[in-house]
Design goal:
Blueprint (H helix, E strand, L loop, with lengths): L14 H18 L4 H8 L3 H8 L7 H10 L4 H6 L17 E3 L5 E5 L9 E8 L4 E4 L7 E8 L1 E6 L2 E6 L3 E5 L4 E4 L6 E8 L7
Antiparallel strand pairs: 1-2, 2-3, 3-10, 4-9, 5-8, 5-10, 6-7, 6-9
C-alpha cells in the first residue's frame, strides 16, 4: 500500500471506510473539549497536519496514531474505531469512557454526557463543584444559551456583570456568548446538569 508524504497509509480499500467515520469522531471529540488542532497535536504528539488530514478523510492513519489521539481525548481505541453511523442507536458509556473536563483550580468537573454527534449545536454536561470551586469560561458563539439546573447545593453565576444565585431545584438560563463564571460559594459540594445550546437564539 502506498504512503503519502506524512508517512500515513493511503488507499481505496476497506480500511478507508473506517477512516471516514474516524475523522468525524476525532473532530467531534476535539470540539467537545474545545481543543484547537494545535492543542490536540501538542497533547497527542501527532502532527497538526496529520490530524487535519484525518478529520478531512484524506489519510488512513496507523493504529499507533489512533492510539495517541484516543489517549489525548480520553477515549479507548475501541470506542474511537467502533463509532459508526450504521450502528444501532444504543450506546452505553462507562465512567471511564466518559470524557471529563476539569477547571483550572481543579475544584470543578464537567463530564461530557451529551451525544458527541450534536456537540456543534448542543452540549450536555454533568457538573460538580467543590466548595470554593470556580469555572471561568470564555464566550461561546453568538446566540448561545446555557441552562444550569442545580440538583444539590447552590451556585452563583456571573454573566457580563450580572450576578444570580441558583439553588437545588432551580434552573437558570443565560447568554453564554460572553465571558461567564460559575462559582460554588457555599459550604457543601454542588451538583448540576448543564446544557449549552449553540445558536439557540438571537437576542438584543
Amino acid at each position: 500500500m502506498a504512503r503519502d508524504r506524512t508517512g500515513e497509509r493511503t488507499g481505496e480499500d476497506g480500511a478507508h471506510v473506517i477512516t471516514g467515520q474516524l475523522g468525524k469522531t476525532i473532530q467531534r471529540l476535539r470540539k467537545a473539549y474545545n481543543l484547537s488542532l494545535s492543542e490536540l497535536s501538542e497533547q497527542s504528539g501527532v502532527a497538526k497536519s496529520i490530524i487535519s488530514q484525518i478529520e478531512r478523510n484524506e489519510t488512513n492513519p496507523t493504529l499507533a496514531t489512533v492510539w495517541r489521539l484516543s489517549q489525548a481525548l480520553d477515549m479507548t481505541v475501541e470506542r474511537v474505531l467502533g463509532a459508526s453511523d450504521d450502528a444501532p442507536f444504543v450506546e452505553k458509556l462507562t465512567r471511564a469512557d466518559t470524557p471529563l473536563l476539569v477547571s483550572e483550580d481543579g475544584l470543578c468537573r464537567l463530564s461530557i454526557i451529551g451525544w458527541l454527534k450534536t456537540v456543534e449545536w448542543l452540549q450536555y454536561y454533568d457538573f460538580h463543584a467543590a466548595p470554593g470551586g470556580e469555572l471561568d469560561s470564555e464566550g461561546h458563539q453568538i446566540g448561545s444559551i446555557e441552562s444550569l439546573s442545580v440538583l444539590s447545593g447552590s451556585l452563583v453565576v456571573t454573566v457580563a456583570g450580572a450576578v444570580e444565585s441558583v439553588r437545588a431545584g432551580e434552573t437558570l438560563r443565560y447568554r453564554c456568548d460572553r465571558r461567564h463564571t460559575i462559582r460554588n460559594e457555599g459550604p457543601e459540594p454542588a451538583h448540576a446538569l448543564m446544557v449549552c445550546m449553540m445558536k439557540a437564539a438571537v437576542l438584543d
